[in-house]
């Protein structure tokens, strides 16, 4: 784990837009403080490190005056541009690796929002970095990324402490082997992959079953609770919670801006939500103990129902009603069936005369749910032919904005 101390904002910290676009710049020793290399961002477990071998351990004397620079670049990638973004980065990273003074970089994707990426790069000092980032070669090099990102934030730090410490002869740890004994237990991460984010909105669902005969009691409990505070933090907010049942299956779909993991933790900590979750515990087919961290993680990992596709018309107009359909599928056919249904929904959304305004497909294993926004009131029938073989789910509660 590297430990970096942020210097004063006038020395090594900046928030700026992509080079070549209007930006607010701070200065470093009289020089423009611009954003770092156009590098992509934090891709959760999927990361790329380049030329790490070029780093050499400094002597104790050199460590006292270390000037190594860490550049952190946060990016928000545009909808539908992820592959273009990755291809551009793949081309650029090899060019950057050849720049004098460059040591290494990593590209990562957020586990809480699939549109949020992070690039970290390490340099021998600020001088070679600034010389490169202010050059015409840099501006030309990062041009392929301009059409892929919505916003960027660049931060720069001087490395002050590091563990393990090369100055003390401490060797870096080798990556753990890929043997089964070295891997963490499977199925215990509620968000094992970045959740779908489109239009700045992250969509996710959880599903579980209750004991037959308890459906009415569970529905009353889930419909009657005080909504948690919608604002999670400076960048994360709950937008909507829609809860449905069909038979003994419960599906709760959520929409948030920002980081989904932060939003889920926020909701789980609210007393009113904890009270409802405790009240339905006796009726669950699979036992859980949300007071135990490991048990809670395992439950939400089992219950996770990721959004795999989202389509919307542009613009949405008039009254919109939300409905949901549960589709009986075979687990092996689940992904292909999800793509097929998503394709049909997307085609309807692009038809300005069609009633379908938006559609999200959630699928995992043998559970596939479509949540649809339909123009006008939605009666109990299917006048627009949207069921596509699915079973209409009963709406328990649908809360938006401040009461999400």
| DSSP, total strands | 17
Overall outline = globular
Write down the CATH topology of the largest domain.
Alpha-Beta Plaits
Secondary-structure element pattern, one letter each? EHEEHEHEEHHEEEHEEHHHEEHEEEE
Query: N- to C-terminal separation?
Result: 37 Å
CATH level 1 name of the largest domain:
Alpha Beta
Q: For the residues shown, what is the average pLDDT? A: 80
Low-pLDDT windows of residues: 1-64, 177-186
**Class computed from helices, strands and strand pairing:** alpha+beta
CATH architecture of the largest domain: 2-Layer Sandwich
Short note summarizing the structure:
The protein has 10 helices and 17 strands.
Q: What do these coordinates show?
A:
With 404 residues, the chain is α+β, with helices and mostly antiparallel strands. It folds into two domains: 2-167, Alpha-Beta Plaits, CATH 3.30.70.100; 197-403, Alpha-Beta Plaits. Helix content is 24%, strand content 31%. The protein contains ten helices and 17 strands. The chain has helices at 9-12, 60-64, 82-97, 126-133, 136-141, 215-223, 260-269, 271-280, 293-303, 334-349; strands spanning 2-5, 26-28, 31-33, 69-77, 102-109, 116-123, 149-162, 197-198, 201-209, 237-246, 249-257, 304-312, 320-328, 356-364, 367-375, 391-392, 394-400. The strands form three sheets. Strands 8, 9, 10, 11, 12, 13, 14, 15, 16 and 17 form a ten-stranded antiparallel β-sheet that branches. A hairpin with a 2-residue loop joins strand 8 (197-198) and strand 9 (201-209). It is globular. The model is unreliable at 1-64 and 177-186 (pLDDT under 50).
């Amino acid at each position: 784990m590297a430990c970096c101390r942020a210097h004063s904002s006038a020395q090594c910290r900046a928030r700026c837009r992509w080079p070549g676009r209007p930006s607010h710049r701070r200065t470093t020793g009289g020089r423009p403080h611009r954003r770092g290399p156009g590098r992509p961002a934090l891709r959760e477990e999927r990361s790329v490190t380049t030329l790490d071998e070029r780093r050499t351990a400094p002597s104790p004397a050199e460590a006292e005056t270390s000037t190594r620079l860490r550049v952190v670049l946060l990016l928000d990638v545009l909808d539908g541009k992820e592959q273009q973004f990755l291809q551009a980065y793949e081309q650029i990273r090899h060019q950057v690796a050849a720049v004098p003074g460059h040591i290494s970089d990593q590209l990562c994707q957020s586990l809480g929002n699939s549109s949020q990426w992070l690039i970290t790069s390490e340099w021998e000092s600020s001088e070679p970095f600034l010389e490169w980032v202010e050059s015409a070669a840099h501006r030309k090099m990062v041009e392929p990324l301009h059409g892929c990102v919505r916003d960027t934030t660049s931060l720069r730090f001087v490395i002050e402490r590091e563990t393990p410490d090369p100055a003390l002869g401490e060797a870096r740890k080798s990556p753990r082997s890929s043997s089964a004994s070295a891997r963490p237990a499977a199925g215990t991460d509620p968000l094992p992959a970045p959740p779908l984010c489109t239009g700045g909105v992250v969509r996710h669902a959880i599903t579980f079953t209750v004991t037959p005969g308890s459906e009415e009691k569970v529905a009353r409990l889930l419909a009657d609770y005080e909504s948690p505070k919608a604002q999670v933090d400076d960048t994360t907010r709950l937008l909507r919670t829609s809860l449905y049942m069909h038979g003994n299956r419960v599906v709760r779909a959520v929409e948030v801006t920002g980081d989904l993991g932060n939003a889920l933790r926020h909701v789980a900590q609210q007393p009113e939500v904890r009270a409802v979750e405790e009240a339905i515990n006796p009726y669950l087919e699979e036992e859980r103990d949300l007071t135990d961290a490991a048990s809670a993680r395992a439950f939400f990992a089992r219950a996770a129902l990721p959004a795999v596709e989202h389509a919307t018309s542009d613009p949405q107009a008039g009254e919109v009603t939300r409905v949901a359909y549960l589709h009986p599928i075979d687990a092996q056919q689940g992904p292909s069936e999800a793509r097929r249904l998503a394709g049909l929904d997307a085609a309807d959304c692009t038809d300005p005369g069609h009633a379908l305004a938006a559609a999200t497909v959630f699928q995992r294993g043998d559970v596939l749910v479509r949540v649809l926004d339909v123009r006008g009131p939605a009666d109990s029938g299917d006048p627009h032919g949207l069921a596509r073989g699915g079973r209409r789910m009963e709406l328990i509660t649908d809360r938006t904005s401040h009461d999400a």
